[in-house]
Amino acid sequence: MGSHRSAIVDAEKTIAAEAKDAPTGDESLVTTTIDEFYRSKAAYVWWMLRDLLSEETLRKVLAAYQADQDKIPRILQRLAQAQSGRDLQWFFDDWVYHDRGLPDFRVESAYPRQASQGNYLVTVTIENLAATGAETPVTVRFDGGETTQRVQVRGRAKGIVRIATQTTDRNYRE
User: Dihedrals φ, ψ of 141, to 5°?
Assistant: First the structure.
């Protein structure tokens, strides 16, 4: 899938440039005719959905799906929400029903503070400069290891994650 990444990014740039000249509407995965979207980007969206839900939950969703009964809008979203117990409206809006581009994350800040008994709590703020939300891993590296947690950052918003560590080595990365 990594070999498809640059094609998706290029297609997104082309769509954004065309939208500035003459807005053409939304290029959703549901209605797209752009090869890079309905093949490559769609594969990434499935991968992200599996990552959000877990492979086991996604298997249950797919097992519950019946194509012959797919007569109501957003059936897959409803099945995914029912199996996971999560509100996934933001995910389907940003990635399936609309094309809001790609997320643009940056680490806004990372602050360590001593918690107790030599342990530290590192608060990391991730900012998303784009309109598309996603979950992203945040890794804090410290003397003796690293810890990763995921944070959901909606479009044009910030997400905060607090990660417990044993030291305060200031080697943080998204």
Answer: -100, 140
Average pLDDT, the chain: 88
Residue in 83, 30, 40, 87 with CA at minimum distance from that of residue 60: 83
Show the DSSP H helices in the chain as ranges: 5-21, 35, 42-53, 55-64, 75-84, 89-92
State what percent of residues in the chain have pLDDT above 90.
Answer: 59
Segment 135-163 shows an average pLDDT of 95
Q: What's at 9, amino acid-wise?
A: V
Alpha-carbon distance of 127 to 116, in angstroms, equals: 28
In the structure encoding, which two tokens stand for residue 54, read together?
Answer: 């877990």
Question: In this predicted model, what pLDDT tens digit does every residue of 37-93 receive, in sequence order?
Answer: 888 888 899 999 999 999 999 999 999 999 998 888 799 999 999 999 999 999 999
Q: Quote the CA–CA distance of 126 and 155 in Å, as a whole number.
A: 11
Output the CA torsion 83→89→90→94 (10° steps): 100
Strand-by-strand arrangement of the 171-173 sheet: 145-153, 134-142, 171-173
Pair of tokens at residue 14 = 């082309």
In whole angstroms, what is the distance from residue 38 CA to residue 140 CA? 35
